[in-house]
Amino acid sequence: MASPDKPTSFDIAALAGVSQPTVSRALRGDPTVNEGTRKRIEAIATQIGYKVDKNASSLRRGQSSTLALLFFEDPLPDGTAINPFFLAMLGSILRTCAKRGYDLLTSFQQLSSDWHKDYEDTRKADGLILLGYGDYELYRARLQDLVRQRTHFVRWGSVELDGLGTTIGCDNMLGGRLAAEHLLSRGRRRLAFIGEASSHYPEFRDRYHGFCDTQLEAGIEPDPRLQIGALSIEESGFEAARQLLANKVPFDAIFAASDLIAIGALRALQEAGKSVPGDVSVVGFDDIPAASLTHPPLTTIAQDYNAAGEALVDTLIGEIGNHSAEIRLLPPRLIVRKTS
Amino acid sequence: MASPDKPTSFDIAALAGVSQPTVSRALRGDPTVNEGTRKRIEAIATQIGYKVDKNASSLRRGQSSTLALLFFEDPLPDGTAINPFFLAMLGSILRTCAKRGYDLLTSFQQLSSDWHKDYEDTRKADGLILLGYGDYELYRARLQDLVRQRTHFVRWGSVELDGLGTTIGCDNMLGGRLAAEHLLSRGRRRLAFIGEASSHYPEFRDRYHGFCDTQLEAGIEPDPRLQIGALSIEESGFEAARQLLANKVPFDAIFAASDLIAIGALRALQEAGKSVPGDVSVVGFDDIPAASLTHPPLTTIAQDYNAAGEALVDTLIGEIGNHSAEIRLLPPRLIVRKTS
DNA sequence: AAGGCAAACGCATACGTATTCAGCGCTGCT
DNA sequence: AGCAGCGCTGAATACGTATGCGTTTGCCTT
To answer: Where in chain B is the domain with CATH 1.10.260.40?
Structure first.
């Protein structure tokens, strides 16, 4: 009504008795603007509620001060919840972006779609953060496209895909070792592993490797019959644990490749009348929020999602500013609760 | 290297032997462009990897095809996880945005900050989705600002704040009734409620009202000593349940105002040696993902976050297109698991 | 044969900001 | 007095797209 259109820098200029470029300079903090002039301009701007039009600004500057966060997962039954570990990371990513003056575009894609072309190309974002697991062949192809297009991006995950951009990940081998050390220190000797250990799931495979290495160093030969494949959902963990029980190969501990798997395994053990941690110790991985809510609360290997989110954002911003790409491994940490 | 700069519509125009405006029209699907011409332009565009610059496009069109999602919560101990119910909604909001051709900017704010000025004013978003609980006085002031600035927004929450924009919420009264009906049908007669029931927490208050109304209709006078305040965190539910037990007022069921509270209450009951559901039935509210993972799995009143997210996005898009504002109440649903 | 009409397209320009370059007034130095 | 240099500002323009309006062409009408 009073002001039908949003004010522009020209309006401010007119009111302040200066030219539009001076307004732009003043508001961006250019030191060539006289201090008094800047004060006057800023006062007028806040008074009439002027805000820089970020579309025009981005167009002119060639950058948008926006990052895009892409969740993707391949076998996506519609309505499926997003991986809780990634969701937990979201909070820290959001906070870090805010601190650094970036906005965050969020998107949820199927790995098989064309997500890799949709953001930086359209100039809506200066760089991409990729969070997702899935078919590693397809993933590799997408990453190659991104590298070819010189898109700025960082990725969370296994450090497997070398040369394909910057990766930040958890030291999964170390995580596996921590789990094994802990279980051994509790007197357990027949350690089972639930989770896919093939090269299609490098994170899980590394966790398993570390887990086995530590056992070997302690003079224990890991029994391959105690490794059961499972995907990172509760149901899959439940099934795998049932199968483990059905196999009748004795075991006194389970290291689950993720907390969701561990939760499913817990359920299977309890339904089978096993006491946790009396008969069987259980250790999970991730430390998702639900891990402390299980009964009994789950001992797990925590990935520090606060540090992870911050590292992703800061590394990406560095990358955009043409700083060197690097690979960063974050150390996991053992959280002892009541299942071990 | 080969193409140092990203291609523009002028490049496409030159290659196709037409003018730039024709390229723009062709790619936007303008029917005045000849079918053959469009095909040719589209072929060239995909071939050289052209993408519309959304900054320029947004600037010219005066809209960004982007929505902004704002989480906020007031007492924000740094590092706190975001409310899991809102997080669960995120997936459906993302999917709906994608379906409707919108991008989503996500942000995490403190209620006390200036979030309400930061998005639509800068033209980065066409509208706002607000998710958050908190101090209702402060909230009201913020909403008034938004209305005054004619910002497009929708809000999830209690329908309390009438006239302040469009609100979508769960029918909390009905949810309370469902909980009471269910517990009564299980033969329970001494029903407790854990959660703040003051007007500062309209959602909880409404749940409590519906809960009491149904009891009254069944000829049962709700005992005010069986209502204990609690905020929506696990710890608070734990404390409240302990207090309830300490009061020595007999009860055979607990309706918790949220699942997090219910999870805390479960823990308190089990530590006190009470059997669930043998001695005490427990019903939660929200149906967060963790609800099915408790032991025993939690009976709860589900808010359909898929429907909620879709409703929020679609209503906001309607609002942007100047369709009438409305208030929508979504029905909750009873999910019977093992705690009742 | 002349006028009318619709389809298809080009010209010019606007969106609001940021930056380059030039200009102005002034000080200080030779 | 003349000139370099500095501090500050304005004029002009570029960023890439979308759109109002006018123009061309071919075809149909009477």
So the answer is: 9-52
User: What tens digit of pLDDT does each residue of A124-145 get?
Assistant: 999 999 998 766 777 888 888 8
Provide the CA B18 to C1' C1 distance, Å, integer: 34
> Does domain A9-52 correspond to CATH entry 2.60.40.150?
no
Superfamily of domain B66-170+305-330: Response regulator (3.40.50.2300)
Q: Tokens standing for B57?
A: 């496009």
Q: Determine whether domain A172-302 maps to CATH 3.40.50.300.
A: no
Q: Which of A57, A1, A2, A69 is nearest to A28 (CA)?
A: A57
Phi-psi label, residue A163: left if phi above 0, alpha if psi -120 to 50, beta otherwise: left
Q: Which nucleotide is nearest to B19 (CA to C1')?
A: C10
Instruction: Please state, for a pLDDT cut of 70, what percent of chain A lies above it.
Output: 93
Provide DSSP, A19-69.
Answer: -HHHHHHHHHT-TTS-HHHHHHHHHHHHHHT----HHHHHHHHT--SEEEE
Q: What angle do CA A80, A85, A90 make, to 5 degrees?
A: 95
Residue B154: predicted pLDDT: 93
Q: What mean pLDDT do residues B257-285 have? A: 95
- Residue A315 has a pLDDT of 94
Q: Write the DSSP string, A108-172.
A: EEETTSSGGGSSTTTTS-SEEEEEEE--HHHHHHHHHHHHHTT--EEEES-TTSTTSSEEEEE-H
Task: Name residues 44-73 of chain A within 8 A of B (Cβ).
Answer: 49, 51-56, 58-59, 64, 66, 69, 71
